[in-house]
Specification:
- The complex is a heterodimer of chains A (about 250) and B (about 400).
- With about 250 residues, chain A is an alpha/beta fold.
- Chain A has one domain: Rossmann fold (3-Layer(aba) Sandwich), CATH 3.40.50.1820.
- Chain A has 11 helices and 7 strands.
- A 7-stranded mixed sheet of chain A has the order 1-3-2-4-5-6-7, sandwiched between helices.
- In chain A, β4, α4 and β5 form a beta-alpha-beta unit.
- The two termini of chain A are about 30 Å apart.
- Chain B has about 400 residues and is α/β, with parallel strands linked by helices.
- Chain B has a single domain, classed as TIM Barrel (Alpha-Beta Barrel), CATH 3.20.20.30.
- In chain B, strands 1, 2, 3, 4, 8, 9, 10, 11 and 12 form a 9-stranded parallel sheet that branches. In chain B, strands 5-6 form a two-stranded antiparallel sheet. Chain B has a two-stranded antiparallel ribbon with strand order 7-13.
- In chain B, α3 links the parallel β2 and β3.
- The longest helix of chain B is centred in the last third of the chain and has 26 residues.
- The chains are: A alpha/beta (about 250), B alpha/beta (about 400).
- At the A-B interface, α7 of A face α10 of B.
Chain lengths: ~250, ~400
């Protein structure tokens, strides 16, 4: 698990189901405060596919193992864990496995819980570009991050990432029926962040996370969709830093 | 030669304009447009066509299934196979086939197929397919494990048919504590297995390694030749010689009393914009993990509209390439001869009409095929040495090197 940048306290960022863009502005903004670790999930963005893996919980266990191997992240209560979208689901699973292991937990538009009224958008029914565009409140940000017409190489990577997501999160799609029952034991102070215009994961999921976790609150970011980290990178980094700095 | 009759069983009573307006005629195209009154009439017409096909001399009836789309009304080929098992007497019932990955219980499939084989007195040919991309979504089955599930379900079914139970199956995708069905195929060592396909090299290689005949579905002649080159190469590596008894072909071929009528009706093969699987949605037809990794670039570009459908071609091109043949018996026979000479299949399916072709025209087509085209093809088959697996007494598979025969005969 390579260090992305920065030299403050350690933060592990878990990326979306679509992977991460090159040099994400959010990671750079975080690196002003944290030592940022931002690996590609196994099977995503060019990292080798774990053929055996069958669940998001498997992925969470792998990350717990990686954290335990690093001197900088090994000690309980040191790491701030930040999960973006699908990565938020992985982060929530990790927190349930080790209720006091993290300094802070931040879930941004996290998948993982079944909405009671709405639905989590099914990417299997949308093209690679349409799905990602759906996650932006402001389409010009998509154009800036990925280009108005992303190159075929990007589409192929999105396809590979989508295939890996299907391998571990196909059914039930994008949630765990057991996760809500495990969240109550998590003692880690948690901030739930949701884009006001998230059209991938309904806001009710954020409300449910905030209610299910023992020590959590929900904060809405205006003028952002599902990809808050790409639309409001500086604002999100600042929100995270303030939360972590609270006594 | 083994000559089969085939229809997609089109649900032609749906409003075509609604499909065009929606932009796709599959998966998410609402079933509010399905008319069960017309459906009931059409199912019964198709049954009549199958019985007529037996009467006029076809050797087999080829059945298939699809889901959530008007291009094919059969949602379960075993249902029609069951009906035909009891209402026909001579034709082989060739299922091409049961989509294995869609099955959560392959043992149940093995039982159903055994029942069909017994009721038909040993006339079942049990083909297996992966199912179309959108069918993975229609049945909620993970496309990323499609091929793994296909291979494992096949292995389990063949074991269920050939090894005495009870046994236990602890696989990757299927687990069964007790496999011991009290319904086994009449044919021993087990019913013949034929594998149809369009595009995936992996499937051709898999079929050749198993020594199962491969049925090319309406590919252009040059593409078909490439399929046989690959099949024969793998056969040689596997230790046997490929040839006509391993080669099948599904030919769209409409025959009428005049050229004009035949060509007019043949245009109905394009009623789904030339797509086998309806006016395809580029994303739904190719979910991630479903298609061959070698085709990833083509499919991702297709999915976002940067490339035309890797599976599609225009009517005129398909007529030129003989993917569609239309005419009177006199004009179609030389074209079929070219197909036989150039690609040497011994199994030939006639996909005889489609779309809105009338009941009367379809019946005329079946009669003309039976009376004039099939006899000519049988002579050609003898002349060209195109012996079917039945005529050649070909083995069922590499693992079962006996021909299939009903037990007790």
């Amino acid at each position: 698990m390579n260090r992305y940048g920065g030299d403050g306290p350690p933060a592990l960022v878990l990326h979306h189901d679509i992977g991460a863009p090159e040099r994400p502005a959010f990671y750079d903004a975080l690196a002003r405060h944290f030592t940022v670790f931002a690996p590609a999930h196994p099977g995503y963005d060019g990292s080798p596919r774990p053929h055996w893996m069958r669940s998001v919980r498997d992925m969470a266990v792998v990350y717990q193992g990686l954290l335990a191997q690093q001197p900088a992240t090994r000690e309980p209560g040191t790491v701030t864990l930040i999960g973006l979208g699908f990565g938020g689901w992985i982060a929530a699973e990790m927190a349930t496995m080790a209720p006091r292991a993290f300094r802070r937990l931040v879930l941004v538009g996290a998948m993982g819980l079944k909405p009671e009224r709405g639905e989590i958008v099914d990417q299997a029914l949308l093209s690679y570009i349409d799905y990602v565009r759906r996650g932006f409140a402001d389409q010009t940000v998509f154009d800036r991050v990925f280009g108005p017409e992303p190159p075929t190489s990007r589409l192929e990577q999105w396809d590979l990432n989508r295939e890996m997501t299907f391998r571990i999160a196909w059914k039930p799609y994008m949630y765990s029926p057991t996760l809500p029952h495990l969240l109550g034991a998590v003692a880690t102070p948690t901030l739930i962040v949701w884009g006001a215009g998230d059209h991938i994961v309904p806001r009710e999921c954020g409300e449910r996370y905030a209610k299910s976790l023992a020590n959590a609150r929900l904060q809405i970011v205006d003028d952002a969709g599902h990809f808050v980290d790409m639309e409001k990178p500086d604002e999100l980094a600042s929100v995270v830093w303030h939360f972590v700095s609270e006594v | 030669m083994h000559l089969m009759y085939f229809t997609e069983q089109p649900m032609s009573a749906y409003p075509a304009q609604a499909g065009l307006d929606f932009g796709a005629t599959a998966l998410m195209f609402s079933n509010k447009y399905f008319d069960p009154v017309a459906g009931s009439r059409l199912y019964n017409e198709y049954l009549e066509h199958y019985r007529l096909a037996e009467e006029v001399g076809f050797d087999g009836i080829m059945l298939n299934e699809h889901h959530n789309a008007p291009f094919c009304m059969q949602a379960k080929c075993n249902v029609f196979a069951s009906i035909l098992a009891a209402t026909t007497t001579r034709v082989k019932l060739v299922l091409l086939g049961n989509p294995l990955p869609l099955a959560d219980n392959p043992v149940r499939l093995a039982e159903e197929l055994a029942m069909i084989d017994m009721i038909s007195r040993g006339r079942l040919v049990s083909g297996f397919v992966r199912g179309g991309g959108q069918e993975q979504l229609a049945t909620g089955v993970n496309p990323a494990y499609n091929r793994e599930r296909f291979e494992e379900a096949h292995e389990l079914i063949v074991k269920t048919w050939t090894e005495q139970g009870p046994f236990r199956w602890e696989g990757t995708h299927y687990q069964h504590r007790v496999v011991n069905p009290w319904a086994l195929p009449l044919q021993k060592p087990h019913p013949r297995v034929w594998i149809p396909g369009v595009l995936s090299k992996e499937t051709i290689v898999w079929a050749a390694k198993k020594r199962y005949p491969y049925i090319a579905l309406s590919t252009a002649i040059d593409a078909t030749k490439k399929i046989w080159e690959l099949y024969d190469r793998v056969a040689a590596e596997t230790g046997y010689q490929g040839g006509p008894e391993y080669r099948g072909y599904l030919q769209r071929c409409h025959v009428a009393e005049t050229e004009e009528k035949a060509m007019e009706n043949a245009r109905q093969f394009m009623w789904m914009q030339g797509e086998f699987t309806g006016l395809a949605h580029p994303v739904w037809s190719s979910p991630s993990g479903y298609f061959s990794p070698a085709m990833r670039t083509a499919f991702v570009e297709f999915a976002v509209g940067r490339r035309s459908n890797p599976r599609g071609a225009a009517f005129e091109d398909q007529i030129r390439d003989q993917q569609i043949i239309a005419g009177t018996p006199k004009t179609v026979i030389p074209k079929l001869r070219r197909l036989l000479e150039e690609t040497r299949p011994s199994i030939l399916g006639f996909w005889a009409s489609d779309g809105f072709v009338s009941n009367a025209d379809t019946q005329t087509c079946i009669r003309l095929l039976g009376q004039e085209v099939l006899p000519a093809l049988r002579d050609m088959g003898k002349e060209l040495g195109l012996w079917s697996p039945f005529e050649a007494n070909a083995p069922v598979s590499l693992a079962q090197p006996e021909p299939a025969r009903p037990a007790g005969t």
